[in-house]
C-alpha cells in the first residue's frame, strides 16, 4: 500500500465564525428563556382564585 499519496495532501484549515455562533447561541438562549418565563409570569400574576374562575 502506498502511503506517499496520503502524505502529499496539504492540510486544510477550517475557519469557524465564533462571533456569529456566539451571537446566534445567545439570541436563541434569550428567546428560549423569555418564551418559558413569560407565560409562567402571566399565569402566576393572577391569584389561584382567579385561575380557578371562582368568585369570593
Task: Classify the helix fraction into a percent range.
Answer: 55-70%
Low-confidence parts, pLDDT < 50 over ≥5 residues? none
Give the N-terminus to C-terminus distance in angstroms. Answer: 87 Å
List how many beta strands DSSP finds.
0
Total helices: the number is 3
Mean pLDDT: 81
Q: Percent of residues in beta strands?
A: under 5%
Reading the helices and strands in chain order gives HHH
Q: Which structural class should the secondary elements be placed in?
A: mainly alpha
Q: How would you describe this structure to a colleague?
A:
Helices cover 66% and strands 0% of the residues. It is rod-shaped and about 80 Å long. The chain has three helices and no strands. The protein is mostly helical and 56 residues long. The protein has helices spanning 4-7, 18-45, 48-52.
Outline of the structure:
By secondary structure, the protein is mostly helical. The chain is 66% helix and 0% strand. It starts with a helix and ends with a helix.
Name its key features.
56 residues; mainly alpha
Layout of secondary structure:
Blueprint: H1 4-7, H2 18-45, H3 48-52
Amino acid at each position: 500500500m502506498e502511503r506517499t499519496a496520503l502524505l502529499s495532501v496539504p492540510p486544510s484549515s477550517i475557519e469557524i465564525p465564533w462571533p456569529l455562533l456566539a451571537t446566534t447561541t445567545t439570541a436563541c438562549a434569550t428567546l428560549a428563556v423569555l418564551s418559558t418565563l413569560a407565560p409562567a409570569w402571566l399565569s402566576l400574576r393572577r391569584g389561584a382564585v382567579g385561575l380557578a374562575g371562582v368568585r369570593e
